[in-house]
Design brief:
Chain lengths: 243, 181
C-alpha cells in the first residue's frame, strides 16, 4: 500500500513530536521523522526500504485533534501537527498487541532458531511484556521444509508480510502472498503450493533476511540439524596405523 | 550483627521445569553469602525442610503447572506466600513443557511410554501425579506478583530481582531479562 503521492515540489513543515519542535519534508511519514530524530516507536511490519503495510498497529501514535489513534508508518506529517508517541494508553495498546501475537502461535523463544536475534522477542521486552495475560491458543501450524535451502515455520509467523513485499518490490519475483483470514491467515508461496515446488522463487534469500522472527530461516540452523560428521577420524587413524 | 534482625523468609519449588532456574540462582556465586545473611530459605529443593511453613514472605516457583501435584503446590504457595514470583519461562509462559499442548494428552503418554519403549511398555499410574490435560503457566492457575522471564534468567537478573525484594521494592525484571533470555 503506497502512500498517496505527495504534491510536487518538496515543502518543509514544522511539527511537534513529544514536545520537540521538528521540521520535516511534507512527503515523510511520522515514523520516518521519528527514526531520523531518535524517537523510539515500536514497529514490526514497517521496515525502511519497503512499501507501507500498516498491519501490526504497534506504531500507533496520538495526533492532536484526532480522537482515534493513527499508525505512524502510514500517516504523513503535516504543518502544525502535534504528535504524542508515548502515553499510558499507547503503552497499554502496544503491550496488548505483543501479548496477542505471542498467544496466537508458537513463540517459545528458548527453542527457536532466532532466539537472541528476534524482533518480536526484543519488542516484548521493550513493551514491558513479562507475561501474557490471555490464554495461549495452542494451535498447530504447518512447517514447510520443502525448499532446498530455506524453511518456513508458520508457527513463528506474525504476518508482517515483509517477505511478501521484499520478494515483490526488491527481488521482483512475487513468490509470496497472504492467504486466509484471521487466525487461519498464512503466508503462501505460488498459490499455496510447497515452497520447494515454486517456479517463481529465485532462492535469493531476501525474505529470510527481512523476517523479524524465526518463521523464515536457512536450513541447518536448528539444534537438531547441527550434526557432526566424524567418520573421517577412524578411517584416517586406521590408515596411519597401517603404515 | 546488631541484635536479631527480621530476616526475610523465602520458599522455592520447581514444578514442571528442568531445575535450570534453580541452578542459575546458585550461579550468583559469592553473592550467596550476602543472601544467606539477609534471607532464611525455609523450604526449597536446595534445603532439607520437608514442608512449607504456614507463612512465608516470598515464594519462588520454577516450572509450569503440568500435573495435579504442580497445581496443588502452586495453590499452596499462593495461599502461604505474601509475594509469589514466577521464575523462568516455564513458570511465566509454559515454555517447553507446554509444547505438549499441541497434542492430545493420550497421544503424548502413548508416545513416551508405549511407542518408544522396547521392553515392558506400561503407563505409570502409581506413585506419580496425574498429568493435567493442558500445561499452564503459573499465573494461569493462581495470581502471580512478579514475573522473571528467561530460559533460564541469568544469575545477574535473578540477583537483581532478589536485591530489589530484599530492599522492600517490587522488581521489574523486564529491565534485566526477557523471554528465552
Amino acid at each position: 500500500m503506497p502512500l498517496p503521492s505527495a504534491p510536487t515540489g518538496v515543502r518543509v513543515v514544522t511539527l511537534d513530536i513529544d514536545g520537540r519542535a521538528l521540521s520535516a519534508r511534507d512527503s515523510e511519514s511520522i515514523i520516518e521523522v521519528c527514526r531520523d530524530n531518535d524517537i523510539p516507536i515500536p514497529s514490526l511490519c514497517y521496515v525502511e526500504g519497503l512499501s507501507v503495510w500498516g498491519a501490526c498497529r504497534l506504531c500507533m501514535v496520538e495526533v492532536g485533534g484526532q480522537p482515534r489513534l493513527l499508525s505512524a508508518c502510514s500517516t504523513r506529517v503535516a504543518d502544525g501537527m502535534q504528535v504524542n508517541t508515548d502515553s499510558e494508553r499507547l503503552r497499554r495498546y502496544r503491550r496488548t498487541i505483543v501479548e496477542l501475537l505471542l498467544a496466537e502461535r508458537n513463540h517459545v523463544c528458548s527453542v527457536c532458531v532466532s532466539n537472541g536475534h528476534c524482533e518480536l522477542q526484543s519488542l516484548a521486552q521493550r513493551c514491558g511484556v513479562d507475561h501474557v495475560r490471555v490464554p495461549y491458543r495452542q494451535q498447530r501450524y504447518a512447517v514447510d521444509g520443502s525448499h532446498e535451502s530455506f524453511r518456513l515455520d508458520h508457527n513463528r509467523c506474525v504476518l508482517c508480510a515483509r517477505c511478501v513485499r521484499v520478494c515483490d518490490e526488491i527481488e521482483g519475483a512475487h513468490t509470496w502472498d497472504v492467504m486466509g483470514r484471521g487466525a487461519d491467515c498464512l503466508i503462501v508461496s505460488d498459490l499455496a503450493r510447497p515452497w520447494g515446488d515454486s517456479e517463481t522463487c529465485t532462492g535469493c534469500g531476501k525474505c529470510i533476511q527481512v523476517c523479524p522472527t524465526g518463521a523464515l530461516v536457512r536450513h541447518g540452523t536448528s539444534v537438531g540439524e547441527m550434526v557432526k560428521d566424524q567418520q573421517f577420524l577412524p578411517i584416517l587413524a586406521r590408515r596411519r596405523q597401517a603404515r | 550483627m546488631n541484635g536479631p534482625v527480621k530476616r526475610i523468609t523465602v520458599a522455592t519449588a520447581w514444578l514442571d521445569g528442568c531445575s535450570g532456574c534453580h541452578m542459575s540462582l546458585l550461579d550468583i556465586d559469592q553473592r550467596l553469602l550476602e543472601l544467606a545473611q539477609k534471607v532464611d530459605v525455609v523450604y526449597s529443593p536446595l534445603v532439607d525442610a520437608k514442608s512449607l511453613p504456614a507463612e512465608v514472605d516470598v515464594g519462588i516457583l520454577e516450572g509450569s503447572v503440568s500435573t495435579e501435584e504442580d497445581l496443588h503446590k502452586a495453590q499452596l504457595f499462593r495461599s502461604r506466600c505474601r509475594l509469589l514470583v514466577s521464575l523462568g519461562d516455564c513458570a511465566v509462559n509454559g515454555n517447553v513443557p507446554a509444547m505438549r499442548n499441541l497434542f492430545k494428552l493420550d497421544e503424548v503418554v502413548d508416545r513416551a511410554y508405549r511407542e518408544n519403549v522396547s521392553t515392558h511398555p506400561v503407563i505409570p499410574v502409581h506413585g506419580v501425579p496425574a498429568l493435567l490435560p493442558t500445561v499452564r503457566p503459573v499465573h494461569g492457575c493462581v495470581p502471580v506478583d512478579v514475573f522473571v522471564p528467561g530460559c533460564p534468567p541469568r544469575a545477574d537478573a535473578i540477583w537483581h530481582v532478589l536485591s530489589e525484594l530484599m530492599a522492600g521494592r517490587t522488581p521489574d525484571a523486564n529491565e534485566v531479562t526477557r523471554f528465552g533470555a
